[in-house]
Amino acid sequence: MTPDPVDQARRLVCDRFPDALAVVLAGSTAAGRATVSSDLDVAVLIGDGGETGRETIRFEGRVVELFIHTRAGLVDLFAADTAARRAVLQSMYATGLVLVDTDGEAGRARALAEADLRAGPPPLGPETVETKRYALTDALDDLADAGDPVECLAVAGFVLNAAADLLCDHQRAWIGGGKWLPRRLLEADAERGSALLEAHLHLCRSGEPGPMIDAVSEVLDLVGGPLREGYRRTWHGVIESLAATPRS
Question: Residues 133, 223: contact at Cβ < 8 Å?
């Protein structure tokens, strides 16, 4: 019989974090979608004398991702996640299953997380948006010209991520990677997000880039349109890698 993952998480907490101030179980397990191979995503708030960090372990045969932090560490991590426009830890605290709540610590952490989520991510600066427009325009040209099916798929992956990034910023929505990219994209803009995802799926199945070019062009139009000639950037201080912008 497969052990209940929530019960496993509770045993883990009792075994490894008996003095935790707050513990939240997040991810698919907290949402009731866990499978036999699902890992446990566990946020652990510890006393101020501890260390903030992340650790992956295996407990009772199940992989566990531990997000461990002090109160000050939690504030710093929330700030970093906000700056990255991802709010991963905020989402864990806002939607997760509370396993430990000492003196209301979990409730206070959840309130901070919910406030960040309501405020939304910071907008990208105008120069950053311009550079992303230029990179996406260039990649879209490569996609239109791609003759090799492997190169076409590789470029399409970049194009999807870049278009999602710009669309989420335009809608002041959180971004995500991996399986969270389509979830965040649909939350940001159900119509345009769905068009991007369906067009990408169509390209992967058929090799036909037309629908994806159309869907991405609509996103570009939202943020100022394609950008080719006229783009200019002068670097001050840290020099960005030219590899950040794909070339033909």
Answer: yes
Q: Would residue 230 be called left, alpha or beta, if left means φ above 0 and alpha means ψ between -120 and 50 degrees?
A: left
Q: Both tokens of residue 185?
A: 């994209």
Angle at 229 between CA 134 and CA 239, to 5 degrees: 55
- The reply to whether 135 and 236 lie within a common domain is yes
Domain boundaries, position 133: 126-244
Question: 């040209």: which residue's tokens?
Answer: 141
Tokens standing for residue 168? 């989420």
Between CA 171 and CA 153 the distance in angstroms is 27
Sign of CA dihedral 44, 65, 87, 35: negative
The string of pLDDT tens digits covering residues 84-130 is: 999 999 999 999 999 999 999 999 999 999 999 999 999 999 999 99
- Please report, to the nearest 10 degrees, the dihedral formed by the alpha carbons of residues 210, 133, 194, 82 taken in order: 160
Residue 25's closest CA among 38, 11, 3, 44? 44
What count of residues does the chain have? 248
**Last residue of a domain, which of 97, 119, 141?**
119
The reported pTM is 0.88
Shared-domain flag, residues 156 and 104: no
3-state secondary structure of 186: helix
| Cα 136 from Cα 192, distance rounded (Å) | 16
Same domain? 158 vs 214: yes
- In the chain, the amino acid numbered 11 is R
